[in-house]
Amino acid sequence: MASLKGKTLFISGGSRGIGLAIAKRAAVDGANITIAAKTTEPHPKLPGTIYTAAEEIEAAGGKALPLQVDIREEEQVLAAVEKTVETFGGIDICINNASAISLTGTMDTPMKRFDLMHQINARGTYLCSRTCLPYLMEAQNPHILTLASPLNMEERWFAPHVAYSMAKFGMSMCVLGMAGEFRGKGIGVNALWPRTVILTAALQLIPGVEGERCRKPEIMADAAHAILTREAKSCTGNFFIDDEVLAEAGVTDLDQYAVKPGMKLLPDFFID
Questions:
Q1: Which H or E run contains 3?
Q2: b/e string for 44-68 if b means 16 or more Cβ within 10 A?
Q3: In what order do the strands lie in the sheet with 143-146?
Q4: Cα-Cα-Cα-Cα dihedral of 92, 95, 96, 99, to 10°?
Q5: What's the CA dihedral at 241, 246, 249, 255 to 10 degrees?
Q6: I need a surface site. Which of 67, 80, 88, 119 has the fewest CB within 10 A?
Q7: Is 95 helix (H, G, I), strand (E, B) or coil?
């Protein structure tokens, strides 16, 4: 089986949820992982800090570098990337995991929230990718993997929450453009998105979500691992869906990822 042993991953966010699951799966192989996230003190409603994440990564077999980073701040991202290179000797993989969400209509989305989503989602993805790129160009089998949806440009995906859809698709456009721009450099630039809603602590703060109809973050972690162990130069420009990636890898038992096997699953946004 292909492995991420010795590879260095720079993950935005990652103190909990899908980002942490991806980090822990890489850690099983013996990867080095920078957790670049904001949370250093426990949140009253959201478990996990960069330090607890680092403990879980090292317990899984990896090496962790927890760094407090607000990816809206260029100097903080630059410093975090430099510290990663200083600590681990380079960067092989950039994971754009950090994202902000507000499922609100136009009149219920203040500009402060609009700006937050665009600064973290679109701008943050662009900034982290851009800052890691000089080191990725020197790496063997370098990848950028962004947790972003296919560019499904239909009115129904915009009308209920224009601001969020714009910000999220900004991440997808980074994938589309950078895949073409850096194809000749041998960097695999891809997106990964879940077919169904993934149960995370943050999701539980959104009213009306039925947790029993979700899948666990581990499905995204296993799908990410399958992508990141492919040959980068021949795997780029794809908008992958988690269960399709696993099917290609020969995984047929998806019940293992269900919060409650047998329940009808909730489809995620932007998926037909």
A1: none
A2: eebebbbbbbbebbeebebbbbbbb
A3: 63-68, 32-37, 8-12, 93-96, 143-146, 188-193, 239-241
A4: -150
A5: -160
A6: 119
A7: strand
d(CA 228, CA 259): 25
Whether the CB-CB separation of 91 and 10 falls below 8 Å is answered with yes
Instruction: Find all residues with CB under 8 Å of 243, minimum gap 6, and list them.
Output: 195, 219, 223, 254
Q: Are 229 and 188 in contact (CB under 8 A)?
A: no
Q: How many angstroms separate the CA atoms of 239 and 193, rounded?
A: 8
Q: Is the pLDDT of residue 44 over 90?
A: no
Band (pLDDT 50/70/90 cuts) for residue 204 is: low
> In the Cβ-directed half-sphere of 1, how many Cα atoms lie within 13 Å?
12
Q: Which of 67, 173, 162 is nearest to 117 (CA)?
A: 162
Contact between 84 and 34 (Cβ < 8 Å): yes
Q: 157 in the Ramachandran plot: left (φ > 0), alpha (ψ -120 to 50) or beta?
A: alpha
pLDDT of residue 230: 98
- At residue 134, the 3 state secondary structure works out as helix
Query: In this predicted structure, what is the pLDDT of residue 46?
Result: 78
What is the model's pTM? Answer: 0.96
* Residue 164: active-site member: yes
Query: 126, 135, 164, 257: which one is catalytic?
Result: 164
Q: Is the pLDDT of residue 155 over 70?
A: yes
